[in-house]
Structures are given as C-alpha cells and as structure tokens.
Task: structure prediction
Amino acid sequence: MKIKKTASIIFIALFLITVFGLGAFVVLRTPGTVSESERRELAAKPQMTMKSVADGTFFTSFEDYLLDQFAWRDTFRRIKAVFQFGVLRQKENNGISVSHGQAFEIKSEMEEKPVNVYIKRINALADTYFSDGGYNLYSTVIPDKSMYLSEGAGIPYVDYGPIAERIKTETSAKFIDIYDLLDGNSYYATDSHWKQTEIVDVADRILTEMGANKIDGIRKNDALAPFYGVYYGHSALPLPSDEIVTLTYDTLDAVKVLRANKKTGVLEDARLYYDEYITADDAYDVFLGGACTVIVIENTCNPDGKTLYLFSDSFGRSLAPLLVSDYGRVVVFDIRYIKTSRALETVPPEQGSDILFAYSISAIEVSDNLQVK
Amino acid sequence: MVFSSIGFIYLFLAAVLLAHYLLPKKFRNAVLLVFSLTFYYVGEQNLVVLMILSTLTDYFCSLGIDRFRDKKRLTKLFLIISLVVNLSLLGYFKYADLFISSFGHLTGIEVKLLQVALPIGISFYTFQTMSYTIDVYRGRFPAERNIIDFAAFVTLFPQLVAGPIVRYSDISNELKSRKITLEKFTTGVCRFCIGLGKKVIIANTLASAVKVYDTSSSHTVVLAWLCALSLPLQIYFDFSGYSDMAIGLGAMLGFSFPENFNYPFISKSATEFWRRWHITLGTWFRDCVYFPMGGNRCSIKRHIFNLLVVWLLTGIWHGAAYNYIIWGLYYGVIIIAEKYVYGKWLEKSRIISRIYFAAVTVFGFVIFHSENLALIPKMLGEMVGAGGVALMDTVSSFAVSNYIFTVILSILLSTPVISVIEKKLTRFAVMENTVVIFRYIICLVLFVISTGYLVDGSYNPFMYFRF
Result:
C-alpha cells in the first residue's frame, strides 16, 4: 500500500513538474526566431488586440507560437519520429522516408502543369534570346533522389522517363540524359542535393555531348563536416551527418570567380568553394557561395575559349566547376531570382556560345519561378 | 480549444489546476465557470452567447417548474420553453441548411443556404440542459438555485464540447462538495494521458490512412479495405480518447463522469455495440425519448416504430447530412432485425456473430464517412473489385506497409487485452505494485510521446466536435 502511494505521489509530481515546468518555460523564455533544423522562421508572439481576440485570430496565432517556441522542440520532434519509425513501423515522417540510410522526400505524383510551364519557359528562353547567333542549346534534367530510392523500398515515386521524354521532344535544346549515371548514393544521405564527388561522370557526359573534352586529374579537397542536410531536420530522425567533399583540378586552381552583388548586381570577386559555410544554415552554400543571380567562372588557362551559359538551380553550383576545363568561362544564371533580360545585361551572350539548361525535378515542380522576361 | 493542444495542456490546464486548488473551496465552481467560458471563447468567440442563452433558459425554466410545481399547465409551459429554445438553437445552427437544401431538392425551388457556422458542442450542451429541465419537470431532483453552480455544470469544460453527456444527477453532489483524493487525481492523470495518446498517436495516424484513400486519384481494392478498416478504429480512438481525457480531467477536478465506451468492438451484435458505444448518448435517448414513447412495453408494431424514431434521431443528432440519417436508420433496422428476426440464431455461434458484427460495423462506418451519398456504393464496389478496380498499386501497397502496424495495434488496443493482462498479473500479490508502477511509467511515456506528436504536428480537431 505504501509503495503504491509513493508511486502515485512520484507519478503526480512528475506529471505536474512537466506541465508546469514546460508551461512556464514557454511563457518566460526569450522566443527564438529561426529553426535551424527545419530551416524556417519560427512564429513570433502575436499582438493581442481587441480585434484579434474578438475574431479568434489571436488564439490561432498563439497556438502556432507555442508550437514553434516549445521547450526542447527538436528533441520532442525526434521522440515522435523515432516512435513513428521504430514502434509504429511507419515508413515516413512528415513525408520523409529513409532507405539504406538515405533520407528522401516521398513524391508520389507530379502534376503535368509545372512540366508544361517548364517546357514553355525553356522554349521562350530559346526563342527570345538564343534563336539567332549560332547558339548551341542543350538541356538536362537532374533526377530527384527519391526516383532511385523509392522503387526498392516499395514507395511510390514520380517516373523520370516521361518527364525527360517530354522535355527531350518538346524543346529545341538537345537533351542529355544523365539518369543512368546516378543512383541513391550520388546524393547526400541527409540532403536533397547530389554530391560533387559523384557527378564527375555526369559532367563528362555533358561535356562530351556538348563537344568539349572531359576533365582529368581530379583531386579531392579536405572533407567538410558535419553536414546536416534539409531532410535531417524535416525527418527529425537521429541520422548520421554527411560530409561535403569538393573537387578540384589544375584548371580550377587558376580560375577567377565573380558573383553578382545582391543589391547592386555588380560582379565582385568570389571563390569556388566557401569552406566556412559548412556551419551556415544551408551548408550546400559551400559551392560557389550559395544562391546568386549571376556567377562567372573565368578560366584563366583558356581565356579565348567558348562561353558556357548554364541556367540552373542549386544543383548547378556544384556542377559548374566541373564544366570549366574546356571553356573560356562558365556563366551560371539563376533566373529564379532575376529576370533573364537583366541577367543577360550583366553578362551579355556571345554568339556561338553553348547554352545548357540543367534543372532539378524540384525546380521544375515550381517552374513558375523561372523569370524569362 | 482542444485538449490535444500545447496551449491547453501546458497553459490552460496548468492555470486551471493552480486556481482550482489554490483558491478557497467556495470559489471552485466560480473558477470552473470562468475557465470553462474562456475555454469555449477561445474556440468559438461570440458563439459563447448561445451557450449562455441555453444555460439561462434552463436555469430559469427549471426554477419556474419548481416554483409552480402545483400548476401543471405552467410547469409544462416552462418545459416547452426550454425544449423550444434548445431545439431552436440546434435546429437553426445545425439543421437549417439541411432543411433548406432538402426543400430545394424536393420542390425544385432554389433557396439560398444560410451557411451559419456550427457552434462547437451545441449538440452536447443543448441535450445536457434539456435533460436537466426534463428531470426537474419529472421531479427527479429539485431545481438548482445557485446560478454559479448550475452554469458551472452546463459549461464544465472537460465535457462541454464532445461529451460524455453528463446529466445533472451524475455530478450534483460533487458540484456542492467534492472530495479530491490522491487516488482519484492519479486515476485522472492516468486517464488523461491514455486518452491523449489514443487521440494524438493512434487516431491521428489512422486519420492519415483514411486521408490517403480520400485524396488518392486511383483507388484499389486494398486501399478501399485499408480505409474501411481504419475508419471505425479512427473514430473510436478519436472519440473514446476525448472521453478518456474528459473523464480524466473531471477526476483531476474532483468529478466522476460516466463512462462513455466499453470496448465496443468486442461486441457480437449491433445491439450490443450500441450498449458499449457512446453510452451516455444512448442513455439520454433511452431516458428522454425511448421510454417516454413506451419503450418495449407495447405492441411489436409500436416497439418497431419507437426504435425507428430513436435511431432516426440518433442519426440526425450526429450530423446535418443524409448519410447520418441513413446511418441511424441502418442501425435501427439492424437492431430491429436482431430483436425480431435473427438475434437468437446469431447467439448460437460466436464465430458467425463476430463475422456478422464486423461486416455490419465496416458497412456502417462507410456510410458514416460518406457525406456524399454517391461515395457509399463507390467505396463498397471498390472493396469487392467491382468495375475493374485494380487489386493493388504502388500507392496502396505503400499505404498498407505504412499503416498496417498501427491498424493491427489499434485493433488489439480496442479490446480489453491490456486490462485482462493487468487483472491476471495483479492476482499475484508480488506483481501488484509492479503493475501499478509500470502503468504510471507507460502513462508518462505516452504523455511525452504525445507532446512530441503535438509539437511536430499542427491543428488536429476532434471528429466529434462537429456533432
């Protein structure tokens, strides 16, 4: 009887300490502004006004605030994820699954509309800016890692083939298929991006298809760690960290890199790799310093060579350094953040240049963002 | 506000417990009233006025009945006022659009729908207050004179929005003086943790399984069955989870609420199922509709009529849509058939009765789920592969592998297996303390995991809020 009573008292005490302790914590703590694991802004404390209390919006916003600012939020999210995977034997948490240690987003279907838009935008780019002047147009589509990992795990996935086929047949650019050169391990285990070390064959095929020479003498730089990718936070699972390894070769040792200033648009000196960004919110910014409207990689070993204009997303930033060797320069445009006309004002196109459109499936899904005008 | 929210558990509940236990006993009902009104206001804002109107109506009507007990006509008038006000609130806010659209369908005349918002819990608190006035009218107990105590009873937040339907007689003594013991508080906390886990971990996961079917563009036999199996389990864990939390919260505050579920899925017939499912609603209809109509102490024809009326009303109570009416009548017809046609035959075989009950339940919840009536034959057809529906595809095989363990676990947890094991173990004196301690540990673990689910999730309302 005594043991039961003591157990009851301890149980009640632990329950009340948890309720009052965590309740007090969320009320008294200084609110955080950003969730590093989820890479998003956290909800701020809502303003209490007569109107917001009367229409109830205050209470909804306040619940969002509590959810975002709860004590040990990431730990609680992890507890849930581990329980969901480990006890309920579910295959996903927040739409993220894990197969052979690789986390990936489950994409069971892709609407036709964004593919239609993408094709229209690529054709509009070609017609508007590169129809005259002897430009050579190429395109490739970067598969999502789920396309490699889902099938073996019995998870529904978007079929790459029909999308690639449509882009191949409905755009005027020569299509370079790279699907067979990649697999699940070509991507970081905790992130959506591919590893630069695993795309040398991809770069070689693209170069060959564009009539350029393959690269040789590739060397690995020191590994940068730890790298926790976007799926690490979204899945909330205790996945082991990745490491980022960048590549170099003789030509790259001597390149000059320029990035457009975010405010002025003026090209400024930059670097190929920013090792210090391994601790940034998005460590993939190691490659060419992160998202930028215009980046120019000048090949000082071949200043008179042709120019390659690469229209791409974040995947392109790790690919671009591997395309430099045979070109005079590689210009990377990210027209999700700048109108194409303005980008081409910064670096006007040279006749007879090569143009490569290399977008990932994720970027094609939101192809509305590509600013053609 | 919902129980399964961070705001409720870590701020509201903490504040209620502090105020309830720190302030002098005489203020406890006033404290509950203030917090209950706040609880309702957070969710419904101005619609709190309706609840206050219902409360005041029944407070004054019951006082009138008590005061003029000798004058039958006058007491009847007060009863009628109470019924009219409550049923008008229910009729206008819940059923007006159903009547209008039905009128439109029948006559071909297009009438604009009112599209009024359904106040949360209106079906529960109107039934509660009506039954109070009916009981006073019947002389079961005198009218409550203290308006704070009465309002605290009506608005009592643990049972306000989704039951159990607590009758005044259930807690009238505890409203005046409630003894809170360590055992009762502990039981309350345990019950709350279990209910929270049922809702947040099991019901919400099953809801995701149902959602796969609802949102998928290609249905298969397997997916239809996954949905059909998940549906009753989801609703059970959602609703019984809420009831557990309500009963637990009540116990923490010194109340003993009636049980609302008793392992309904171990039933062998629809009749037994309804003795185990939403018990307080069944009791309410039995006492306030079925018995006054004559119950079963009448001719067979009249009995069948009485049953059909009760089940029609049960269906209507659940929602302002035709599928709920059909669902209610479906159970009415089956219960009549069990009573007068094959009930005794069913009792002869446990296996047949269980298969029969499973089929009746799955079919019943398909009706319950399909607010669009056309979806009922569609889903039933898909379950038997009619119209060339494929057996399985990648989406459905993934859905099965993703949710099958939860479905199996929830089937297991919907039976009394754990309480049977507990009882068997506690027969050994040496195990008694271990079982208790283990139960407490499980409750705390459930509480922490549920918090994880809440923090990682978003808004998750209870299904029965819309009833």
About this structure: Chain A has two domains: 2-87, 110-369. Chain A touches chain B through 52 residues (CB under 8 Å).
